[in-house]
Amino acid sequence: MRQMTEEFEEKPIEKDEDNKLDLLSMSRKERRKYTKQRLQETISDMSPGERRSYLLYYYKERIIISIIAIIAIAILGVSYYKHSRPISLSYVVINCGDQLRFNADAMDQYAKDIGKFDGYQLKGDTNVEAVQSEYSKDYEQNAKSQKYISFTTLATADYYDVIFTNMEGGIYCGMMDIFYPLDKYLDEETYNMVKDDIVVINNMDGKPAQYMIDVSDNEFVKSLNLGYSDMYIGFAGDQKDNHERVKEFLDYIYK
To answer: CA dist 90 to 79, 93, 124, 126, 155, Å?
Structure first.
């Protein structure tokens, strides 16, 4: 590769210099024919090595542009494919104890178990910190205010299916009305399945609401290594797809 780069950069010695014929008077077809003829004459008596060096230099702009175009198309194609695939689950972990220890493999296994791994995408975020007491500080003194805004914006835009959190993060979500009340959000069958684990916290108006499910003893959730022992889940997405994925997830962890 280094040798090829040098050949691009160094102009080879031509055995026949072009006589600088005025090509402007020719048609495009005539110029192409003339240029091709001159090229063949120039390299006809060159050694194979000299010929390769000359051609690499002669066509270097076309080669470089072609390589860049191929790479760009490949990147765009991969990016489009990744973002156009259906979602198996979109989740966020609030106040993750140690992001490096979070067991993303367990989420991959979940997608495989429900038959939504190949051709699907898992959307996960473990970089969200949300503590009600910190958010309550004066805005100018809260260095993490932008993080709160970004998370809240995504949560209220139906981006997340499942929100994993500890109690601190749960209180924040309740205060911001991010969670939907479970007695209204879940269908009757699913609600009855989780009702013994439902946790009540206050909403924005200070009124109690059934916002979270206590999954502290759930084997699957424990396997995620969230970094805390008080583990809860709540739901912020209210589109049809969000509801379907939530039900699928709850059926899986409660099986």
So the answer is: 18, 11, 6, 12, 11
